[in-house]
């Protein structure tokens, strides 16, 4: 099982984390490139040109890469590392996760609200992701469960989840199985890794 909460595909390309030296599927790692001003630029979408430099998706690994000047070593040149690099990566990942959930909502593959989510879980819907706000009541969140094979994330706040659904705040949400659900799992795993400030796998199986 990978850190993104999926079974490892042996054909999936891997990259090495410059902080740990360990290899992992590249889609589970944070990608950076060196910009035209020799600055380290996060590539959350994985589309920027240039040789990629990869770091495990957790704050400890990213802090180590910055403090130990590992970006310069990997690039084999002097580089400029923004002081707020980790915060910028977190900001971009947050926006990415919100946008993906919003796309799932617009395509009819996401619901919000306690009763609707509970109905999906109880009705045998193919739920891929259960999302609950990080700053909501644990007592209220405990009333819902994660189906077998699904993933659970609590890496977004009520306000952030609200943005994805066009509301002021959201506590509970669920995404159907499918392409967008899988992409949310990948990106939310990275975001949670950064927000946990540790080496967690970025996803859990609550319930």
Write a structural description.
The chain is an alpha+beta fold and 207 residues long. It is 37% helix and 17% strand. It has seven helices and nine strands, in the order βββββαααβαβαβαβα. The chain has helices at 59-67, 70-75, 85-106, 114-122, 138-141, 158-165, 179-196; strands spanning 14-16, 23-25, 29-34, 40-42, 53-56, 110-112, 127-132, 151-153, 172-176. The strands form three sheets. A four-stranded mixed β-sheet has the order 6-9-7-8, sandwiched between helices. A three-stranded antiparallel β-sheet has the order 4-3-5. The chain is elongated and about 55 Å long.
User: Strand order of the main beta sheet, please?
Assistant: 6-9-7-8
Hey, roughly how much beta strand do the residues contain?
A: 15-25%
Radius of gyration equals 18 Å
Choose one word for the global shape.
elongated
Mean pLDDT: 90
Straight-line N-to-C gap? 19 Å
Residue share in helices?
Answer: 25-40%
Unreliable sequence segments: 1-7, 198-205
Number of strands: 9
Summing up helix and strand content along with how strands pair, one would put the structural category as alpha+beta
DSSP summary: helix tally: 7
SSE string: EEEEEHHHEHEHEHEH
Main beta sheet: 4 strands, mixed
How does the SSE layout of this entry go?
Layout: E1 14-16, E2 23-25, E3 29-34, E4 40-42, E5 53-56, H1 59-67, H2 70-75, H3 85-106, E6 110-112, H4 114-122, E7 127-132, H5 138-141, E8 151-153, H6 158-165, E9 172-176, H7 179-196
Parallel strand pairs: 7-8
Antiparallel strand pairs: 1-2, 3-4, 3-5, 6-9, 7-9
Helix pairs in contact: 3-6, 3-7
